[in-house]
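Justification of resources, computational component.

The compute hours requested in this renewal are based largely on the per-chain cost of generating structure records like the one below. Each record pairs the submitted sequence with a full structure-token output. That output is archived, and it is also reused by downstream analysis tasks.
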Amino acid sequence: MADRQLIGRAAIAGIVVAALATCVVLLNGGEEPRAETVAVVGEPTESAPSREPDRTITRTLGQERPQPVSNDWRITYELVGAGTATVVYDSNGLGLVHQEPQVTLPWRKELTWKNTGAPPTVQLMGQGEGTVECRVTVGGAVVTSQKSAPGEVATCAGRLTPS
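The structure output for this chain reads:
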């Protein structure tokens, strides 16, 4: 009976030693750390490039601070024509459309959309009794326009491209 207890205790001690050895190997990544060697080969053949002296920029009190440059999308929707029209437009570049019935022409809507990194999709549709022209401008530049026949829908839609 004493021999069995001794064998059992020896087995448990062996398992504990093996577990500790495994932990040590895992914590060290299984490798011993190596010293890095650096080889120096010859002397440089060219002189190091010269650099300009450091510049000091000072600002006196009372000067205007530069305003941060906004990278938001400035969108302007326009419908040109006579009379009234029904307008459908995307208000945020994510496909959420709004409808305004019986607006007086000419009609204009200026929006600012946050730049999320992906170019938004613009969508403007207008239908009136007569000829209607739709125009979409981004930052003051016309990106799309279309003129409809009397009574038909003028559609300006598409994904903006980064400038």
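The mean pLDDT is 77. Helices lie at 2-27.
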